[in-house]
């Protein structure tokens, strides 16, 4: 279940929630963020390799490459057994920006993007089938959870891939984590 919460910058408990795809998409579009749903062109096994995953989504990937000039595409897979899960989580939880336009499509699992735009924070719970973009230079952070279980397609306009400029802000410490958000839904 995808979910968007829009909160005043320093009041994460005062947010407005949106759970319908059309509402989420419209709210994010207003700040220049693309939010789409994709379906694979065929079924593949959970342990499918990168080439198989990319082939299953070849048509929407090609559309985005043509539209935005993406030059590199890869698949990242993180599980609870990943040896660097704690370090990766901490790195992504630190507010940062990119010179590049960031795009993630969730093939499996879920994650929580936080977009810090103006005096608001847009917390976006993305689940399997969701695609989200983060415009260049947008302050944001991401929580993959304490026990990550996700597979995502990443698209980049530069061949360097993921390169972050950290802001030094600790704003993320005041926001609910992915685990807390999921627990609140049950």
Automatic annotation (TrEMBL):
It is an enzyme of class 1 (oxidoreductase). Fe(2+) binds at residues 96, 98, 102, 140. Its EC number is 1.13.11.54, 1.13.11.53. One of its GO terms (molecular function) is iron ion binding. Keywords: Amino-acid biosynthesis, Dioxygenase, Iron, Metal-binding, Methionine biosynthesis, Nickel, Oxidoreductase. It comes from the Bacteria. InterPro entries: ARD, ARD_bac, RmlC-like_jellyroll, RmlC_Cupin_sf. Belongs to the acireductone dioxygenase (ARD) family. This is Acireductone dioxygenase. The lineage of its organism: Bacteria, Pseudomonadati, Pseudomonadota, Gammaproteobacteria, Methylococcales.
């Amino acid at each position: 279940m995808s979910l968007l919460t829009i909160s005043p910058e320093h009041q994460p408990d005062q947010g407005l929630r949106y759970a319908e795809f059309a509402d989420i998409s419209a709210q994010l579009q207003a700040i220049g963020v693309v939010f789409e749903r994709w379906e694979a062109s065929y079924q593949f096994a959970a342990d499918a390799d990168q080439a198989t995953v990319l082939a299953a989504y070849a048509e929407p990937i090609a559309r985005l490459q043509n539209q935005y000039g993406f030059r590199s595409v890869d698949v990242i897979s993180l599980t609870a057994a990943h040896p660097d899960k704690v370090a990766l989580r901490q790195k992504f939880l630190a507010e940062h920006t990119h010179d590049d336009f960031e795009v993630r499509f969730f093939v499996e699992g879920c994650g929580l993007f936080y977009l810090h735009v103006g005096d608001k924070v847009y917390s976006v719970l993305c689940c399997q089938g969701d695609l989200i973009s983060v415009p260049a230079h947008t302050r944001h952070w991401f929580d993959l959870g304490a026990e990550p279980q996700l597979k995502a397609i990443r698209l980049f306009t530069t061949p360097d891939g993921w390169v972050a400029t950290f802001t030094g802000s600790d704003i993320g410490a005041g926001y609910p984590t992915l685990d807390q958000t999921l627990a609140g839904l049950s």
